[in-house]
Design a protein that fits this description.
It contains four helices and no strands. By secondary structure, it is mainly α. The radius of gyration is 15 Å and the shape is elongated.
């Protein structure tokens, strides 16, 4: 079982990732040429920001301070580049959240992480599906 400090550290790494994709996806929404991709990636950006909020609330409950600096943002230029970047980032998110669950986090944190993980898998499915259309 992870200590509270270890859990906070790992949740903060996840927040940095969530902030990064929130920024990345909102800019992709602005620059994307494919309207379906643009509209959906805007909704995903909002979902990712809500993930960061959920993690921040949990960190606060554990007595920590949430991260405020995102991981490096990579928007891409063409829609196909954007989607490839997004697929990689969603795979990374799934890896991080599965690692948290396997690492022995407390049940209250696990509930938050499981919900986010389910949504990340849904995002990955969308990006894999849209890849054939952009």
């Amino acid at each position: 079982m992870l200590t509270e400090q270890e859990t906070i550290y790992r949740l903060n790494a996840a927040i940095a990732m969530e902030l990064q994709v929130s920024i990345q996806y909102i800019y992709q929404h602005v620059y994307a040429k494919n309207n379906i991709f643009s509209m959906k990636v805007e909704k995903i950006a909002i979902a990712e920001m809500k993930h960061a909020e959920s993690l921040a609330r949990r960190i606060k409950e554990l007595g920590g301070r949430p991260a405020t600096v995102p991981s490096p943002v990579n928007i891409g230029y063409y829609d196909s580049d954007m989607v490839s970047i997004d697929i990689n980032d969603e795979h990374s998110a799934i890896y991080v959240y599965e690692g948290l669950l396997e690492g022995g986090i407390d049940e209250k944190t696990a509930i938050v992480v499981r919900r986010i993980l389910q949504e990340e898998k849904s995002h990955l499915k969308f990006f894999n599906d849209i890849r054939r259309k952009v």
